[in-house]
Amino acid sequence: MYSRTAFAVVLLAALSAPPPAAAQDMMRHVDLDSPDMTEAELTRADVEARLVDATADRPADFTGMRLNGLDLSGLDFKGAVLRGARLNKANLAGADLSGAVLDQAWVLDADLTGADLSGANIFQAQLVGSKMDGADLSGARIVGDLSYTSLKGARFRGARLGADMRNQSMGLMRGVLRKAMLDGADFSGADLSRVDFEFASLRDADLRGANLMSAELAGADLTGAKVAGANFSEADVNGATLRGLVGVDDSNLDQARNLAAARRD
Prior knowledge:
- By secondary structure, the protein is mostly loops.
- The chain has four helices and four strands, in the order ααααββββ.
- The two termini are about 35 Å apart.
């Protein structure tokens, strides 16, 4: 999981980043040891009661609530509103968060193994260091920080992690997956334009039909990745490992930047 030392490195990097990146940073001046970030104001039973009372017209609302460290595994949060909620170190393994709103939520070092986040809205959320192996994020809108997160075998089919250049008044808002573990993840048909994958592991990942235009792939490992139909236009592959790619002839990898500096067959 995510160590305090690793978190300090990420925090230091965020604080020293140029203004466009800083616009996405939510970690400034945050005391990670404060009760707001470590304690819970509800029990699992309390959460279950709220979920039982929820309806399609009135979904369960946990806006801004502290749910840190709770065992919420397997619960049905379908369509729930968790905007600004604190879920640090919570256990959400196998939970149904499909269609949920997790905008500006704090989900540091949490366990979402096998969770269903399909169609979820995850805007300016912090999921650094969480475990999300096998999670389903198909069709989700993800504009947040998933650096150091383990997402082995996760599904991002049709997900939107790319920057919407029509609305960037606050700086570059996009998915950040620096040093994330994405081996075997399915990004087929996903919007990954301008996404930060620096030093991430994408071994055997499915990138078929994905839009990686201007993505940051410096130092990333794409060994064995499926790339047929993928758009690498202006993607930075400086120092990336591009060995054993499947379907490379049907991609436009030749339009990537720093291709000569990548590790290839």
